[in-house]
Design a protein that fits this description.
The complex is a heterodimer of chains A (about 200) and B (about 475). Chain A is of the alpha/beta class and about 200 residues long. Helices cover about 30% and strands about 15% of the residues of chain A. Chain A has a seven-stranded mixed beta sheet with strand order 4-3-2-1-5-6-7. The longest helix of chain A is centred in the middle third of the chain and has 13 residues. Chain A is globular, with a radius of gyration of 19 Å. The termini of chain B are far apart. Chain B contains 15 helices and 19 strands. Chain B has about 475 residues and is α/β, with parallel strands linked by helices. The longest helix of chain B has 17 residues. In chain B, helix 2 packs across helix 5, helix 12 packs across helix 14 and helix 12 runs parallel beside helix 15. Chain B has a five-stranded parallel beta sheet with strand order 5-4-3-6-7, covered by helices on one side. The chains are: A alpha/beta (about 200), B alpha/beta (about 475). At the A-B interface, helix 4, helix 7 and helix 8 of A face helix 2, helix 3, helix 5 and helix 11 of B.
């Protein structure tokens, strides 16, 4: 898996609460059997006119100033709804490497870590202030430093963020979770043998 | 020490736990469907791994299949490929698959329980957020992403952070006309779509104890819409009665012994929860959603909200956006809203009791000319049973379409979808923008409320409905 250590990028604002995974990637794109190639269809229904080709000029992310954005700033409960991992796939394929919001939905949050997409939780006031700064400054850039858990602003000041140490280390090192778990394989086998699970056909 | 059911199941399933890290939990049951599994199986192939416990893994096809005749191959090329991919993957990795032609096929969260694959005290996962449904049996059931699906296939375990616990106690008896769908909609309206974040919800109280298993499944199903990690109900005699005789129960186990084992999972009487919320069942009206989030809901006697009256600026902005999308004027009485499509089905309300409730409304009546009605049974077993009871004839006589099982218009991945601007009374679980089709306008209701709206041509209070004796 890809790792995440530091990233500097243009910030794009998506000022909406409860952005659900149906908006992030609508169901018709879940028919594909591949893991990649979803960048073009991120926020499909908001991003395009009815034909799916002409960009909707009312959608803030379509503004030329945000074309190369790689950090998404958004609001509460981002990624709620369906568990589709296609949502972080689409965000990553589009070019986002980090997300900043006051909160994320649980399943979506977990899915991000399996795709080296860093979801950062900050308090409401800080997020609101960032929205203003992003809109007031063309090409507004932040640097995310996962090791030190800091976001560095253009003026050099920094914002601290918290993250579960285990998740941080996984992302820093790009560890494959299945490989990590299989280091405990004997414990899994021991569990299967020892527990008389009524559901297990083997026992 | 007194424990909640969540704590009991958690403690019994930890394979390995280290401070500061997620615990490795053993997974007793893994359900798989065609949409969230292809990349997971491909991942196994690429890393030269196999499915660790194919005997605990069961697959079905539900999201992406047509509900029209299965006699012909699936018309949509991508859908056909995805369904074939699941068949091929299951064959290669030795996983039992209930394909479209299997008499046990259906929506994953309908067939699991009806086949006896879902049982108290189990940890259950599926690449689908409505996996929370299985919590109705006193199982810890989580929706997971595709990478986690791959992880479970390879290791039969899942990494999990321990959740907080929330008790939602529903006091009193459900009055006539009120269903568990109304209760869960009212709960989500009350605590919001992130109210349950970081929590596992346990539903307790007199109203819950008196609910059937199907009614409990509806409640637990929509726990995810409140942002919860899972929703559970402690098992009791109702649970055991439902499970008796189900096909996939272990064959070499004594029934009484199994029941005694299941009883142990129930929350201890003096256990405590991190958060407790109480609701009074008799005070809840039949619910109808008006907006583009399950929390945007009100009682049938209520009205579309007036944005100016909403204090919180974010909520006000969300309301304005939702009303514009839904094409609704502030203050419109819910009873005056007229759907053009009615969808009865989904993992929330596609079971026998749901169909019976809808059929009772339709009996001796016709649907309004102004709308179409789609009735989609949750599984082949449900379809067969419904036909044996003559429910299909009631639906068809009333002018409804009676379809093959599948997720259908809940998420409209197949051809069952709304046209832009089309308004729908739906027994499903999400009213997000575009959920049932781009530009589609979804109103979430109970099956009886959906059927009554279909006959009346607009939403009505089911408590006032005059049933026809036929």
């Amino acid at each position: 898996m890809k790792s995440f250590t530091t990233h500097q990028g243009i910030v794009a604002p998506l000022e909406a609460m409860n952005v659900d995974t149906d908006q992030i990637i609508p169901k018709q794109f879940l028919k594909r059997i591949e893991r990649t190639g979803y960048g073009d269809v991120l926020f499909y229904d908001w991003r395009y006119e009815d034909d799916g080709k002409i960009p909707n000029s009312d959608f803030e992310l379509n503004a030329p100033r945000y074309h190369n954005a790689s950090i998404l700033l958004t609001k509460d409960n981002f990624g709620c709804g369906s568990s589709r991992e296609h949502a972080p796939w689409a965000l990553s394929d589009y070019g986002f490497r980090a997300l900043i919001a006051p909160s994320f939905a649980d399943i979506f949050y977990n899915n991000c870590f399996n795709n080296a997409l860093l979801p950062i939780t900050l308090d409401h006031d800080t997020v609101q202030a960032l929205f203003e700064e992003v809109r007031n400054t063309e090409g507004y850039t932040l640097t995310v430093d996962l090791q030190s858990q800091k976001i560095i602003k253009p003026d050099g000041s920094s914002i601290d963020f918290t993250i579960q140490p285990f998740l941080r280390d996984r992302l820093l090192n790009g560890w494959d979770q299945i490989g990590l778990t299989l280091q405990h394989e004997e414990k899994i086998t021991e569990y299967e043998r020892a527990k008389a699970l009524p559901c297990s056909k083997r026992l | 020490m007194a424990k909640t059911i969540y704590e009991k199941i958690w403690d019994a399933h930890v394979v390995h736990e280290t401070d500061g890290q997620d615990a490795i939990l053993y997974i007793d049951r893994h359900f798989v469907h065609e949409v969230t599994s292809p990349q997971a199986f491909e991942g196994l192939r690429l890393s030269d791994r196999s499915v660790r416990r194919p005997d605990l893994t069961f697959a079905t096809m539900d999201h992406n299949i047509p509900t029209t005749s299965r006699a012909l191959p699936i018309a949509d090329q991508l859908s056909r490929a995805q369904v074939e991919t699941l068949k091929h993957n299951c064959k290669e990795f030795g996983v039992e698959c209930f394909d479209m032609y299997d008499p046990r096929n259906g929506i994953v969260h309908v067939i699991g329980p009806e086949l006896g694959l879902t049982r108290p005290g189990m940890t259950i996962v599926c690449g689908d957020s409505h996996t929370s449904t299985h919590g109705a049996f006193g199982a810890l059931a989580h929706g997971i992403g595709t990478s986690e699906v791959e992880h479970v296939l390879a290791t039969q375990t899942l990494l999990q952070k321990r959740s907080l616990t929330m008790e939602i106690r529903i006091n009193g008896a459900l009055p006539p006309g009120l269903t568990s769908k109304d209760i869960i909609l009212a709960i989500i309206g009350h605590i919001g779509t992130s109210g349950g974040n970081g929590h596992v919800i346990e539903y307790t109280g007199e109203a819950v104890r008196n609910m059937s298993m199907e009614a409990r499944m509806t409640m637990c199903n929509m726990s995810i819409e409140a942002g919860a990690r899972a929703g559970l109900i402690s098992p009791d005699e109702t649970t055991f009665e439902y499970l008796k005789g189900r096909p996939f129960l272990p064959k070499n186990r004594d029934w009484n012994e199994m029941v005694e084992g299941w009883k142990q999972w129930a929350s201890d009487p003096d256990c405590t929860y991190d958060t407790v919320i109480e609701l009074d069942a008799p005070s809840i009206q039949p619910q109808v959603s008006w907006g583009t989030s399950p929390e945007m809901v009100t009682g049938i006697k209520g009205a579309v909200p007036i944005p100016d009256e909403i204090e919180d600026p974010d909520k006000r902005a969300a309301c304005i956006k939702a009303l514009a999308y839904m094409g609704l004027e502030p203050g419109t009485p819910m009873e005056s809203i007229a759907p053009e499509m009615v969808f009865i089905g989904s993992c929330t309300n596609g079971r026998m009791e749901d169909l019976r409730a809808a059929a009772k409304v339709f009996e001796g009546r016709k649907k309004a000319d102004s709308l179409q009605v789609l009735v989609v049974p949750g599984s082949s077993i449900v379809k067969k049973q419904a036909e044996e009871e003559g429910l299909d004839k009631i639906f068809i006589e009333a002018g409804c379409e009676w379809r093959e099982p599948g997720c259908s218009m809940c998420l409209a991945m197949n051809d069952d979808r709304l046209k832009p601007g089309q308004r729908c009374a739906s027994t499903s679980n999400r009213n997000f923008e575009g959920r049932q089709g781009k530009g589609g306008r979804t109103h979430l209701v109970s099956p009886a409320m959906a059927a009554a709206a279909a006959v009346a041509g607009h939403f009505v209070d089911i408590r006032d409905w005059e049933y026809k004796e036929v």
